[in-house]
Amino acid sequence: MTIQWFPGHMAKARREVTEKLKLVDIVFELVDARLPMSSRNPMMNEIVQNKPRLVLLNKADLADPRITDQWMQYFQKQGLACVSINALKGEGLPKAASEAKRLFEPKVEAMKKKGIRPRAARAMILGIPNVGKSSLINRMAKKSIAKTGDRPGVTQAQQWIKVGKDFELLDTPGILWPKFEDPAVGLRLAATGAIKEEILDTEPVAIFIVKVMSNRYKGVLESRFNVEDLPADPREALEAIGRKRGFLRAGNVVDMEATWKLMIREFRGGQFGRITLEDPADFVEEESAVVEEEVVNTTEE
Ligand SMILES: Nc1nc2c(ncn2[C@@H]2O[C@H](COP(=O)(O)OP(=O)(O)OP(=O)(O)O)[C@@H](O)[C@H]2O)c(=O)[nH]1
Ligand SMILES: [Mg+2]
Questions:
Q1: Which GO biological process entries does UniProt record here (predicted)?
Q2: Which letter does DSSP use for residue 170 in this model?
Q3: Which one of the ligands is nearest to 174 CA?
Q4: Which of 33, 44, 92, 167 could form a disulfide with 63 if both were Cys (CB 3.0 to 4.6 A apart)?
């Protein structure tokens, strides 16, 4: 299965980001701490150009803390300011705000030199769908102004939101890119909820989750579902889990559909503990790769 989701509204949202770029001082690039590379738009450098940028590893509460530290070092080595945060509870936000102020400082100095009274920093919040952009804005503003939701595509238009006296934040719709070169990227994004549900087949996503869990967090599925010696074959493993949970149809047949959905739901809900899907070591070679922009293929609205 190849996963692709780059509908017309996303192409439009990307154009609007480019149009607004000149108005902003800083870009907050939100990535998912569970998949910091796969959740980064490969076109980000091209989109953001040379605006000061702060990388925020969001949903850090769901990610493996040891690997999050490695990712922080990875980004910092590339000269990017980077903070791990939990946009829902507010963890890491004071640090993120102080980093953002530091990035804005040269402009403040320039304004002062010109005799202009420094204004609030204007930051554009960018990231894939469902990564927590609007949640971050609400938490920083200490009120629910931006609409949020547990599915991708909630924010449909840009919106400026004033946060105290220090920031004005521009909420934007989540943006993906026309083609996932590596199919595993599509699966990671599907597993964590960045792809619209209606265009997804649940079976390959559930199988992917079982494979990842067995490779990276051996034993977690066995203890979560209370099954001993989970079969190595992911389909058989899913069947054993469905049977254990009592998802049975007439004739004692496992309801696989219900089992696939269960696997995805539990994974997204953090029921398997703090899980990270990729390590910086997996990406050493790609660090300097130049990603060419693909022809826009607008498939799905
Ligand atoms: N566990 C956890 N959940 C989070 C965090 N931040 C956001 N969420 C949840 O992630 C989901 C998506 O949040 P939104 O703020 O709507 O995401 P968005 O990036 O604005 O999404 P779009 O507008 O669809 O692009 C919601 O269910 C949030 O509650 C976090 O740090 N930790
Ligand atoms: Mg949003």
A1: translation
A2: E
A3: 1
A4: 33
Q: What is the CA(126)–ligand 2 centre distance, in A?
A: 10
User: Which residue is closest in CA terms to ligand 1's atom 2?
Assistant: 59
3-state secondary structure of 105: helix
CA-nearest residue for atom 26, ligand 1, is: 150
Residues 6+ apart with CB under 8 A from 264: 191, 202, 205, 206, 209
* pLDDT tens digit sequence for 16-27: 999 999 999 999
Domains identified in the chain and CATH numbers? 7-170 (3.40.50.300), 201-281 (1.10.1580.10)
Cβ atoms within 10 Å, residue 298: 13
Does the model's pTM come out above 0.90?
Answer: yes
Burial (CB count <10 Å: 0-12, 13-18, 19+), residue 190: buried
